[in-house]
Amino acid sequence: MLTRGAFIVIEGLDRSGKSTQAAVLKERLAGEGVQVELMKFPDRTTSIGQMIDAYLRSSIELDDHVVHLLYSANRWELATRILDLLASGTTVVCDRYAFSGIAFSASKIKTSNRVLPYAWCRAPDAGLPAPDVTLFFDIAPSAARARGGYGEERYEREDMQGRVMQAYARLGAEMEAERPGSWVRVDAGQSVENVTKEVWDLVSPLTRGIEGEVGKLWVGE
């Protein structure tokens, strides 16, 4: 059976260190001779991504339903590229993915108590390529708030981040029930060096390639 690249996603609260570790992981993989590409969602370089960027910076206002569907569309417009890279033997490291979109949208609370149902939030991403492993960077919202740059974007409020953490717990439980070992907690409160080591220990076995086709998220439910 032919091997393909591994699909690795890093998730977590804002300021949990995801982007730093994703960049470090890419460099480490490249240094080990592994073909690798780093992606980040939302991808703010596309036309859809530019609308999302303006929303996150509070430059424009959009209905929550529209925002959520834009996030999903941003992932779908790159889904074929992800599959092509994996098929070519390239490992894809992804800084945020569908889980972020669901967790953040389902965690919004309106003054009118109108919320986006969890099932509705998950539905547009059904069928997207499924990660081989998702590394969830676990850190208390209060600890994330203490890090530099917190509060610069729309969702960086401690109360919001607390609700997001609960949504991530639900997503993680579902993923583990469906594919054990596909959702792994990483203690993001440790030193940068220790997080780097833990991530590499988890990822290095995947560098030899993955056998079998890429799965799909939430198909058949």
UniProtKB/TrEMBL annotation:
Cellular compartments per GO CC: cytosol; nucleus
UniProt-listed GO biological process terms: dTDP biosynthetic process; dTTP biosynthetic process; dUDP biosynthetic process
GO molecular function: ATP binding; dTMP kinase activity; nucleoside diphosphate kinase activity
Enzyme class: transferase
EC number(s) from the headed UniProt entry: 2.7.4.9
Source superkingdom: Eukaryota
Pathway membership: Pyrimidine metabolism; dTTP biosynthesis
InterPro entries: P-loop_NTPase, Thymidylate_kin-like_dom, Thymidylate_kin_CS, Thymidylate_kinase
Keywords in alphabetical order: ATP-binding, Kinase, Nucleotide biosynthesis, Nucleotide-binding, Transferase
Domain Thymidylate kinase-like: 10-199
SUPFAM superfamilies cross-referenced by the UniProt entry: P-loop containing nucleoside triphosphate hydrolases
PANTHER family, sorted: THYMIDYLATE KINASE
Family per record: Belongs to the thymidylate kinase family.
Name listed for the protein in its UniProt record: Thymidylate kinase
Organism: Schizophyllum amplum
